[in-house]
Amino acid sequence: MDGVMLLGGEEDRKGRRRSQRPEVEATRIRILRAAERLYAERGFDGASLREIAIAANQGNNNAVQYHFGSRDRLIEAIFDERVAEMEAERTAMLAAAERDGKLEDLPTLLAILSLPHLSLCDAKGHHPHAGFLVHYLTRRTPDGTGRGLSCAFLGAPAMVRLLDLIQARLTDLPADIAQTRIMLCALMFLNLLVGHDTAHPQGGAPAVLARHATDTVAAMAAALGGPAI
């Protein structure tokens, strides 16, 4: 029986059943965090499901298979969980942008895309999800298909709306070029976080990171808004 599909629980943003039992959910989160950290450090081929179970302090080496079924489903669960965590912040940021008349302002939209990643940090102030997502975006399409970015975020309406707003600012570009630029800009910000964490192994430096994050969003806007060659 797959722990993600246990009956009697709530549905996740893609309609999959999840247990409401606190101990099951706590185990599930421990596995997700351990897997995210190991995948960020080693890549998807560098950590076995057994190693992930051990890192999550699970006595049963088959714990990952029990809760997620397979490596691919584990990877998608990490992605989905973090998208869901950032959804409320992005919803609030979009509402503020709409109130201020900035829904057509590319730097504002890219800030909404990027800055919520700053809150996904561990006890040291590091950002393992950024490292995970670098591997995810460069090794596989966001939803396992070639249908485009927005299809990866079904059930996350703020993210879908945000991507639509960004793409609406890029109508002078061919669709494939626009999608590639959005992906490369996302990787620019994620690699900022990875580099910052590497430079500060004992803990993050929030003031330094905030300054660099603001500058990186400005660089992203300049790169994204340039003419096609």
Description of the structure:
- The chain is mainly alpha-helical and 229 residues long.
- The chain has one domain (3-224): Orthogonal Bundle (Tetracycline Repressor, domain 2), CATH 1.10.357.
- It has helices spanning 22-42, 49-55, 63-68, 71-99, 106-114, 128-139, 157-168, 175-199, 206-224, and strands at 10-11, 17-18.
- A two-stranded antiparallel ribbon has the order 1-2.
- Helix 6 packs antiparallel against helix 8 and helix 8 (175-199) runs antiparallel to helix 9.
- The radius of gyration is 18 Å and the shape is globular.
- Mean pLDDT is 86; it is low at 1-9 and 143-147.
Describe this protein with a few key phrases:
two-stranded antiparallel sheet, mainly alpha, 9 helices, Tetracycline Repressor, domain 2, 229 residues, 2 strands
Task: Describe the structure concisely for a colleague.
By secondary structure, the protein is an all-alpha fold. It has helices at residues 22-42, 49-55, 63-68, 71-99, 106-114, 128-139, 157-168, 175-199, 206-224; strands spanning 10-11, 17-18.
Q: What order do the helices and strands follow?
A: EEHHHHHHHHH
The oligomeric state is single chain
Rg calc: 18 Å
CATH superfamily: Tetracycline Repressor, domain 2
Number of strands: 2
Order of strands across the main sheet: 1-2
- Stretches with pLDDT under 50, minimum 5 residues: 1-9, 143-147
* Shape assignment: globular
Largest sheet: 2 strands, antiparallel
Class based on secondary structure composition and strand pairing: mainly alpha
Helix content: 55-70%
CATH topology title: Tetracycline Repressor, domain 2
Number of contiguous helices: 9
When the domains are counted, the total is 1
Overall mean pLDDT: 86
Q: For the record, give the distance between the C-alpha atoms at the N and C termini, rounded to a whole number.
A: 53 Å
